[in-house]
Amino acid sequence: MKQVFARPRTLLDVPFHYCPGCGHSLIHRLVAEVIDELGVRERAICVPPAGCAVLAYNYLDIDMLEAPHGRGAAVATGIKRVRPDAVVFSYQGDGDLASIGTAESIHAANRSEKITVIYVNNAVYGMTGGQMAPTTMLGQVTTTTPYGRDAALAGYPILICEMLSQLPGATYIERCSVHDAKHILQTKKAIARGFRCQIEGLGYSLIEILSPCPTNWHMDPPAAHRFVKEEMVKTFKLGVFAEPRLGGDAC
Predict the structure, then answer these.
(1) DSSP bridge pairs for 23
(2) Are 169 and 202 in contact (CB under 8 A)?
(3) Mean pLDDT calculated for residue range 76-96
(4) Of 105, 118, 114, nearest to 34 (Cα)?
(5) CA-wise closest residue to 24 among 94, 73, 71, 106
(6) Which of 207, 193, 177 is nearest to 244 (CA)?
(7) What CATH superfamily is the domain 24-245?
């Protein structure tokens, strides 16, 4: 009988520690599948800076180099410049990339560094207890916004894809989600495009992925996935914001 589904070689055979319903485990598998299918496992290098995302080194069977909080793009840039043959990507959360890491993120995109960024957005600081993040939506309740985020006090959620897509160096920018099977498959395609963009030497790519955080949203997993579908996408519109040409064809 032909085998049609199996654990990716790049995904280690260990139990995930993530909370039930968390999107990180799904995204890890997608990244592992793409690495296997592109045949780049031996030259892939991941940079996980901080937050829940930092623990990716427990699950992906590739070289890893941990970065200081927010400095994923800077460390990935250094690796790629000295190892141009490597496939280098950072794996970052919104509290990391869109807060302390905004300078590194913006300038790496502006320079069109030939790196790939996997950016997981769950609209809260997940690892430290669910505080307001740069991506927390207006009216969203967190431990530090018990009455909901108020624009007059805390400003507006940061829209990274919209911001970076205005830079001429941002080669490929797409926002996806993992709230259902259809969007999981679309996210895998986007991750593959991001890696291909780097492999073909086209420049900087970022794939933002809307991800549920049931624990810090105080929801069960099905409700958290519905929250992404019904609420998050109102603020964080899904789609391609900057599109390159890959292998002669559009992404």
Answers:
(1) none
(2) no
(3) 96
(4) 118
(5) 94
(6) 193
(7) Thiamin diphosphate (ThDP)-binding fold, Pyr/PP domains (3.40.50.970)
**Residue 22 φ/ψ, nearest 5 degrees:** -65, 145
Spans of all domains in the chain? 24-245
Q: State the first-to-last Cα distance of the chain, in angstroms, to the nearest integer.
A: 34
Measured from the Cβ of residue 237, the count of other Cβ atoms closer than 10 Å reads 12
Tell how many helices (H) and how many strands (E) occur in the chain. Answer: 10, 11
Region at 16 (left for phi over 0; alpha for psi -120 to 50; beta for the rest): beta
Whether residue 115 contacts residue 171, with contact meaning beta carbons closer than 8 Å, is answered with: no
Strand partners, 172: 205
> In degrees rounded to 5, what are phi and psi of residue 240?
-95, 130
Structure pTM?
0.94
* Summary mean pLDDT of the chain: 93
Q: Give residue 46's pLDDT.
A: 97
- The rounded distance, in Å, linking the Cα atoms of 216 and 154 is 19
Confidence of residue 251 (pLDDT cuts 50, 70, 90): very low
> At how many degrees (to 10) do helices 102-110 and 72-82 cross?
40
The per-residue pLDDT for range 55-82, each reduced to its tens digit, is: 888 999 999 999 988 899 999 999 999 9
Can you give the pLDDT at residue 249?
A: 55
Token digits of residue 97? 């990339």
Burial of 112 (0-12, 13-18, 19+ CB in 10 A): middle
Query: What whole-number distance in Å separates Cα of residue 59 and Cα of residue 150?
Result: 38
Separation of alpha carbons 84 and 134, rounded Å = 32
